[in-house]
Write a structure and sequence with these properties.
Blueprint lengths: L10 H11 L3 H10 L4 H28 L3 H25 L3 H30 L3 E2 L2 H28 L4 H25 L18 H24 L1 H8 L3 H12 L2 H12 L3 H26 L13 H17 L4 E2 L1 H20 L1
Antiparallel strand pairs: 1-2
Helix pairs in contact: 2-3, 3-4, 3-8, 3-11, 4-5, 4-8, 4-12, 5-10, 5-11, 5-12, 5-13, 5-14, 6-7, 6-12, 6-13, 7-12, 11-12, 13-14
C-alpha cells in the first residue's frame, strides 16, 4: 500500500490562480525603482506587474458587464482599458514624449482593429468552423473608424501642404470628433439599440457582486496607471542606450500592455462563439481612442505644458488607413473564420516590423 495520498488537483483552479502570482511584481517594481535599479530590470518588473492587474480589470469588467446589456458591456470593456491609455498618455506628455504618445494612439487603434479581433477569430475559429456576427454593428463601427481616420488625416495633410501650425485646427477637429462620438453613443444605446444587441453568452456567470467588482476595478486601474507611469519614467534611458525609437515603443509596447484587458475579454468571448461581442470590444475601443481619448488629449495637453496636435507622421497615417480598410472589408459579410483572423494578425505584424526598421 502506498504511503502517500494522492490529492486531486483542479486545473481550472490553477488556471484561475496562476495570473495572480505575478502580483508579487507590483511591490518588486516599486522597490527596484526606489533603490534606483537598472532601468531594464524596472521595466521588466513593471510589465510583469501589469499583467495580473489587467487580468483583474478584465475579470471585474466582465462581471459588471454581465449585469447589463451587451452593448453597455462591450463599452465598459473598452472604456476601462482606455482609461489607462489616457492616464499613460498624460504622464508621457508631461515627460515630453509627444512622439511616443502619437505612436501609442495609432498603435492602440491598430492593435484593437487587427490584433484583438484577429486573435479572437483565431481562437474562436479553432473551436468553431465559422462564426457569425452582427453586420449592422460592424458596419456602423467601420463608418465611425473612417470618420476618425478623416479627422486625423486632414490636419496631417494640411501641415504637409502648407507647413503651418495646426493647433487651432486640431482643437476644432477634436471638438467635432468628440461630439460625433457622443451622438453615436446616443444612437447605439437609445434610439437604435435593437440593431446592435449581441447575443448574450449563457455561460457567463456573475461571481462578484457590484460592490466587490467596482472596488477591484478601481484599485486595479489605479495600480495599472501607477505601474504604467513607472514604466514611462524608465523609458528615456532605454531610448538612449538601445537606439529604439519612441514611435516603435509607443506603437507596439505601450499600445500592447495598455490594451491587455480588452484582449483577454475579447478572446474569451471569441472562444465562446460570441464573436460579435469580441468585435464590438475591439472596434468600440478603437473608436473611443480616436473619437474621444484623442480629442480630450488634444484639449488637455496645454494644461500639462505640452503641445499635442493631430499632425501625425505620414507612415502612421498610412498604417491606420490600411487597418481600417481591411477591417471594413472583412466586416461586410457577417461571417468569419480562423484564416481571416490569421490575416488580420499578419497585417499587424507587418506594420510592427515596418516601424521597427523605420
Amino acid at each position: 500500500m502506498s504511503r502517500y495520498i494522492k490529492v486531486p488537483v483542479n486545473r481550472s483552479i490553477l488556471r484561475w490562480f496562476f495570473p495572480y502570482l505575478l502580483l508579487v511584481f507590483v511591490p518588486v517594481s516599486i522597490i527596484l525603482k526606489i533603490v534606483d535599479a537598472n532601468p531594464y530590470a524596472v521595466s521588466i518588473a513593471t510589465v510583469l506587474a501589469i499583467i495580473p492587474v489587467t487580468h483583474l480589470i478584465a475579470r471585474a469588467t466582465q462581471d459588471l458587464s454581465s449585469r447589463s446589456s451587451t452593448i453597455v458591456g462591450s463599452l465598459m470593456n473598452a472604456t476601462f482599458g482606455n482609461a489607462i491609455e489616457f492616464l499613460i498618455a498624460i504622464f508621457a506628455l508631461r515627460a515630453g514624449l509627444i512622439d511616443m504618445v502619437r505612436a501609442s494612439i495609432t498603435g492602440s487603434i491598430i492593435i484593437n482593429i487587427l490584433l484583438l479581433i484577429g486573435l479572437s477569430m483565431i481562437f474562436g475559429g479553432i473551436r468553431f468552423k465559422e462564426q457569425t456576427f452582427n453586420r449592422d454593428s460592424a458596419g456602423m463601427a467601420s463608418t465611425m473608424l473612417l470618420i476618425a481616420v478623416a479627422g486625423l488625416v486632414l490636419p496631417t495633410l494640411y501641415t504637409m501642404i502648407t507647413n503651418k501650425s495646426v493647433v487651432i485646427m486640431s482643437q476644432a477637429v477634436s471638438i467635432t470628433l468628440g461630439i460625433t462620438y457622443l451622438l453615436s453613443l446616443f444612437f447605439v444605446l437609445f434610439t437604435h439599440r435593437h440593431l446592435f444587441e449581441a447575443r448574450r453568452d449563457v455561460r457567463e456567470q456573475v461571481t462578484w457582486g457590484w460592490r466587490r467588482s467596482v472596488i477591484v476595478l478601481v484599485i486595479s486601474i489605479g495600480i495599472a496607471a501607477y505601474e504604467s507611469e513607472l514604466l514611462i519614467s524608465v523609458l528615456q534611458p532605454i531610448f538612449s542606450t538601445t537606439g529604439l525609437r519612441q514611435d516603435f515603443i509607443g506603437l507596439v509596447v505601450i499600445a500592447l500592455i495598455t490594451n491587455v484587458s480588452e484582449h483577454v475579454a475579447a478572446i474569451r468571448f471569441g472562444m465562446r462563439d460570441n464573436i460579435t461581442l469580441s468585435m464590438e470590444i475591439g472596434m468600440n475601443s478603437a473608436i473611443q481612442i480616436a473619437l474621444f481619448v484623442v480629442p480630450v488629449l488634444v484639449l488637455v495637453a496645454p494644461l500639462v505644458g505640452a503641445g499635442l496636435t493631430l499632425a501625425f507622421p505620414p507612415f502612421q497615417i498610412i498604417a491606420l488607413i490600411l487597418a481600417v480598410m481591411i477591417i471594413n472589408y472583412m466586416g461586410s459579410d457577417g461571417i468569419c473564420n480562423w484564416l481571416e483572423g490569421v490575416q488580420l494578425v499578419a497585417v499587424y505584424i507587418l506594420i510592427a516590423i515596418a516601424f521597427y526598421f523605420l
